[in-house]
UniProtKB/TrEMBL annotation:
Transmembrane segments: none annotated. It holds the Pfam family NAD_binding_10. GO terms for molecular function: biliverdin reductase [NAD(P)H] activity; riboflavin reductase (NADPH) activity. It comes from Fonsecaea erecta. InterPro entries: NAD(P)-bd_dom (IPR016040), NAD(P)-bd_dom_sf (IPR036291), Polyketide_Oxido-like (IPR051606). This is NAD(P)-binding domain-containing protein. SUPFAM superfamilies: NAD(P)-binding Rossmann-fold domains (SSF51735). It comes from the Eukaryota. Residues 12-250 form the NAD(P)-binding domain.
């Protein structure tokens, strides 16, 4: 079975943005798989947002770690009986913690695992490579490969500044440690996309501004409140709700791919703000 199977694989599905994308995917009637460390936490989140048990029948929850190649492979193949999903969505991130380094006194925002995004990217790429090695037919044509949508952040652009002046110190000093990890993740995915034989047919990097709100897709201001931009022409702003980012990604990236259309944002690093 090829990636035309209209399924989506999720990594980091208990996080607010990725969770909202998952909810919209399931509510639209599509099948999905999600790799999580605590399956009951994800079930409780989805039920609390009003999803029915029948809707959750379309979700395969895989228990495991996103840094484990075998677990990632199970997630990629679970809803498709050994094939590949149409879309892979990853929104992994570390748990914030305060730190102090006398050499860099302003870099007080750390992570429990300061390399989680980059390591997870390496793991996902390795898992895809193993799948293709065992079934070369899945890699035969670009159209058979999944689309990758990954959640990143503003403040690490290769293009014009995408952070407003008044919060640049926050982004470029205090948040240096988590942003180094996000940048390495982006470099891995963008490097693969630029290679002669990438594992994904294309990538979409999603760069929201500072996130607000919790893990509930209903806690949204609405798509009409969102401003979007590209790396070349970014949308600068201060804050956006997690639920709004999730709704935008489903509407403009995941939903488009599931309907067999190439969205206008494929290949872009998309800045989002409200």
């Amino acid at each position: 079975m090829s990636s035309s199977s209209s399924t989506v694989a999720f990594f980091g599905a208990t996080g607010g943005v990725t969770n909202a994308i998952l909810v919209h995917t399931l509510k639209a009637g599509y099948k999905a798989s999600a790799l999580v460390r605590t399956p009951q936490k994800l079930r409780d989140q989805l039920l609390a947002q009003g999803l029915s048990s029948e809707t959750l029948d379309n979700l395969t929850i895989v228990q495991g770690n996103a840094l484990d190649v075998a677990a990632v492979r199970r997630t990629l193949s679970s809803p498709t009986a050994g094939g590949l999903p149409a879309v892979v969505v990853t929104g992994l991130g570390g748990t914030p913690r305060l730190q102090f380094n006398w050499r860099h006194p302003f870099q007080i925002a750390g992570l429990d695992n300061p390399h989680i995004c980059a390591t997870a990217a390496q793991t996902l790429l390795a898992a895809m490579g193993e799948i293709y090695a065992e079934n070369p037919a899945l890699r035969a044509t670009t159209d058979q490969k999944p689309l990758l949508a990954f959640v990143s952040t503003t403040g690490i652009t290769r293009g014009p500044e995408d952070v407003p002046f008044f919060i640049r110190f926050l982004y470029h000093q205090i948040l240096t440690v988590p942003h180094v990890d996000k940048r390495r993740m982006e470099d891995l995915y963008r490097g693969d996309a630029a290679s002669a034989d990438p594992v994904f047919r294309n990538v979409v990097g999603v760069r929201p501004t500072l996130l607000s709100g919790g893990a509930d897709y209903r806690d949204a201001a609405g798509l009409d409140k969102i401003r979007s931009g590209t790396e070349a022409k970014p949308a600068c702003g201060y804050v956006i709700k997690r639920a709004d980012v999730g709704a935008w990604v489903y509407e403009n990236v995941v939903g488009e791919a599931l309907q067999g259309r190439k969205g206008r944002w494929e290949g872009e690093m998309v800045s989002l703000t409200s």
